[in-house]
Design brief:
Elements lengths: L1 H23 L4 H11 L9
């Protein structure tokens, strides 16, 4: 039972951290760059 409680606390803290980052608009630079590349909007790139 203690192990299950610890597991729940771990995941609750992870979800809380993710929610806080989302509320701040915090997106990692790597994720932002990938999203821009997928949209084809990186600076210096010509769209086809």
């Amino acid at each position: 039972m203690l192990s299950r409680t610890a597991d729940h606390l771990f995941w609750m803290s992870r979800y809380t951290e993710r929610a806080a980052n989302a509320a701040e608009g915090g997106v990692s630079p790597q994720h932002s760059q990938r999203a821009q590349h997928a949209r084809g909007s990186l600076p210096g790139e010509e769209k086809c």
